[in-house]
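mind reviewing these tokens:
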Amino acid sequence: MTTGDSDAAIKYAPTPESLEDFGLVDAYKDWLNTEGVKVIEDFAFEDMSKIELGPWERKGGKGAVINIPYHVLTNDSQIIEINPGGKSEPEHHVYEEYVYIISGVGATSIWTGDGNEKKTFEWKKGSLFSIPLNAWYQHFNGSGAEPARYLAVTTAPCNMRLFSDNDFIFNCDYKFANRYSGEDDFFSGNGKLYKRRIWASNFMPNAPDMALYEWSERGAGGINSMFEMAGNLSKAHISEFPIGTYKKAHRHGPGANLVLLSGDAGFSLIWTKDDMSDLRKADWKVGSLVIVPSDGTYHQHFNSGTRRARYMALTPGTHGLRNPIPRGQGADASFKAGGYQIEYEDEERRIHEIFEEELRKNGVTCRMKAFIPYCTGEVGPTSAKDA
């Protein structure tokens, strides 16, 4: 073929000078605007009980939606307060939702909308449960004098943007019977323990006090339990570590919500650059919320207080984008072995120096000598048995 023949085959058309921009619909932002709810863009909150809320009629009182300052929203975090003696409007939706009770007492009714009777269970401060996908539900404040406040972590952003049809999200009548079909014991608090510390249950009556199991790969004397709830793709786990110790740094996708359940002082270090030039420190205490703010963000948690520190992580999971893998795989493996974790011997020295400086402020001895040769403290726990 000659050059002339090739040029003749090109289907060229001049671009008109006046064209409109293609209009992109953001169903999630449209929903936020329709709800009229207060939106907060941030990732670290020292006290969830003091986050300022605005009116949110659907939820029975006040609320705010937290979005991380990042262009990818795998989930959102909603702080909701039900008025004394109040209740939310009945609703159902095609997105997953975890609920953690920050304060107050109350009850939740769940039903499928196909004639099955409502199942009602009671909750209190520290309870954790998940609304089954597209099941009807309604929350009730059990106190006539005090508000009830809770954290809801939902997959609303990605589901709404996937379907771009909020009528489908809130009015779909399909019953996900493989997740929930009105079982009498669904919210009983009973469960089953599996390998790799996996606890399958749909209701945790008191997350700050539940039993945990050894997870030495993540750091000195640490214990943990991974949760499978309501058939969700989004996940949850609880970890706890001793006084004067800290977890190993690792990284993963955005949207992991870290909720502090016990401990009197501590902090998380967060960074994205290999030279740590964007290092940020987020101090925490019981009731704090820290969210992994972007993809590939390194984060590391430190107990600088005088009590054991326990935190819960509510995470977006895989959204079905990859084949199922065992819980925790990769998160507890070294980068040198193909994982996403920085081992103690590979961390920057300044990490430990920051930790010891915080310990001195609280009069606490560092107990990392078994792992950090330049630690100025003592040999501490190397397993859960001696923690």
Remarks:
- Residues 191-322+339-386 form a domain with the Jelly Rolls fold (CATH 2.60.120.10).
- The chain is about 10% helix and 30% strand.
